[in-house]
């Protein structure tokens, strides 16, 4: 392993300890310094970005880069405005460190506090979007976590410039430790980073499904994120038709390239005749390719709708990320729930129904991080969920699930304050009993 | 892979969905049936255990099993009483499933609920202690999680008998799904289980450090637990001496074989003269081997204390689990904190001090799951922390940390209840604003 990677990681890990106890005031001063530095150094950022764009244009000519990637790479003055506004939003967020989550008296003068604290050292690996650096750095700083960044090589100049501007602003703020934020620049360094599970506490990869899968397969470090987003809506026989048409259209068409758009529409057979033809018409009008199972194909063909494709078994497991939708008729809500739990990615799934017991069954039995009732799956998003900023969307079953805000960067420690108590007095014969009484004390107020 | 393992796991995973929405009443009836069945089937359990003990005696003769392992294997009538009492304790615990953790209005009639739910399918792998089965099964059942058990081969007969009695009791309770609890019996099956990360959501290994390390190294499934327990106490210059002597003695001597006993004592040089000689005398009197750094060795030698050993650099990373203690003098609290964060296992560490700013620095900067102030490290334990039952002690930095009770078996899902809202109305020009207003509604009360 390149020694400088390991030494960068160790440096950041050491700084993470200091950073964990920096006061809210100092953290906010550092964030404001970051915002002002970005504003002052616009020219340097745009110049660096121009170099990346030039190189990207060359790669695009050779067919090695798509236009979409080039677009995501571009930094404009208004994007810098967005970065600055994002940092100032984080200043407004409540400091999540040092909150007393619970307080329990174990015995007289023996009080157990559960107090929130940063996770430690986070590794953020992302593809070519330079605005990730200020966004993630501000969230990590506010939550007291040190961070190692690795951006896409296409954005190397932009990332480096933005990173250096921000770190200079942070480290010139009185009371901030040095070395808490580090940048890695080569692809080889990723493999090194993935092996440093003794130091890195959490990885947040942001990018394509393949990219996230690669990270998950090659590290022992916990990974926060999701690979695929195979989302469904089930239109129940008790659906309100207007709601169903409107919501199912939005969930596929409003922005098909994202993880919370639906890929499969499940329809209760009893409502298919009244619901599906108009729905299909709306989709076809918006240019959606419809991949139908046997029965929905027959139904739509009879009504003279075209063009129609046939869904194969494979379609149920595909994330199209495009204007393509698979359609299946089901006999019961149970069949729909089984289909979703079997083929879905436990990300976001919805039901359209006016029936309370159907709603209850669906929300209880669908094993997904977000379950929507009579609302579009597209709402599953950190900003829409009121989190201010999104760290990612997690399909993990532990720690943080669904859209994750700053709360996903925190854990807790237990602090026991005593007056010389020993376990020997609470064990064996004549053991003293524990009181286990909940108290309303805050650790931050203990003098 | 042996097909029956995969099919057992898939069966349990399917049943986990049903189990997740079983009512509190039905779960408590199943728990009571478990308790009564154990009581009724004592003879069968003791007979099965006798077979295991007989085989164990043979192995012990051949030197393949220690007496400690044989002791842990033994089931007596009073141990069965303990199992029954443990199950009835779990009946008394509040059902943790379906709690509304937060409620947010995104817009009029568009309400986001965050609701607690089971994790899904848990794998519990343990060495030879048959009482683990009823304890873990009752916690998993109450929290709505399906479970795969794999016990040590030495306890095969006992585990199988207890398991079958409990499953029969559960599955004969009206409303409980079949197949949620499964038993694996061979060592080969562990490797199969470890590879089934598509189905198993969490592993809880209980056993030796090597055993837990082996599990961690060989699976992509999240592992809840800890490998080593290298715990410290730092005796600050502002320590109350009586407190220091009492607490440091308890933390090493009261039960040295466990993970929360201390392995290293760090002493501020300014208090070493007045504190250490009497402390060493107490330890030597209890048969503790003292491995001293250069300066503490010199200090104690001068006072004529013996026998003393010398600590090597390696000692700072050793978990003795025995009556052995390493001792080091430090110049500052910072040096103590650095030592603990560098060589410790982030499990449990303590400070003895009467000084508030020293206490604050230590509790803020020591990166451990439990931090003790003027109290023994031995208090770090699920029972003592008032959790009723302990799932394990975690040194993970995500999800659950420190002693973990039933709360470690839960996660949440987001449920969004709407009236046909679509994202298109909240995007682009003339976008509707989100209200993001906190509400006091409970999802369980929504009709």
From TrEMBL, chains A, B:
<dbReference type="GO" id="GO:0005737">
    <property type="term" value="C:cytoplasm"/>
</dbReference>
<dbReference type="InterPro" id="IPR012134">
    <property type="entry name" value="Glu-5-SA_DH"/>
</dbReference>
<keyword id="KW-0560">Oxidoreductase</keyword>
<comment type="similarity">
    <text>Belongs to the gamma-glutamyl phosphate reductase family.</text>
</comment>
<dbReference type="Pfam" id="PF00171">
    <property type="entry name" value="Aldedh"/>
</dbReference>
<dbReference type="GO" id="GO:0004350">
    <property type="term" value="F:glutamate-5-semialdehyde dehydrogenase activity"/>
</dbReference>
<keyword id="KW-0028">Amino-acid biosynthesis</keyword>
<keyword id="KW-0641">Proline biosynthesis</keyword>
<feature type="domain" description="Aldehyde dehydrogenase">
    <location>
        <begin position="3"/>
        <end position="282"/>
    </location>
</feature>
<dbReference type="GO" id="GO:0050661">
    <property type="term" value="F:NADP binding"/>
</dbReference>
<comment type="pathway">
    <text>Amino-acid biosynthesis; L-proline biosynthesis; L-glutamate 5-semialdehyde from L-glutamate: step 2/2.</text>
</comment>
<keyword id="KW-0963">Cytoplasm</keyword>
<protein>
    <recommendedName>
        <fullName>Gamma-glutamyl phosphate reductase</fullName>
        <ecNumber>1.2.1.41</ecNumber>
    </recommendedName>
</protein>
<dbReference type="GO" id="GO:0055129">
    <property type="term" value="P:L-proline biosynthetic process"/>
</dbReference>
<keyword id="KW-0521">NADP</keyword>
<dbReference type="InterPro" id="IPR016163">
    <property type="entry name" value="Ald_DH_C"/>
</dbReference>
<dbReference type="InterPro" id="IPR015590">
    <property type="entry name" value="Aldehyde_DH_dom"/>
</dbReference>
<dbReference type="InterPro" id="IPR016161">
    <property type="entry name" value="Ald_DH/histidinol_DH"/>
</dbReference>
<dbReference type="InterPro" id="IPR020593">
    <property type="entry name" value="G-glutamylP_reductase_CS"/>
</dbReference>
<dbReference type="InterPro" id="IPR016162">
    <property type="entry name" value="Ald_DH_N"/>
</dbReference>
<dbReference type="InterPro" id="IPR000965">
    <property type="entry name" value="GPR_dom"/>
</dbReference>
<comment type="function">
    <text>Catalyzes the NADPH-dependent reduction of L-glutamate 5-phosphate into L-glutamate 5-semialdehyde and phosphate. The product spontaneously undergoes cyclization to form 1-pyrroline-5-carboxylate.</text>
</comment>
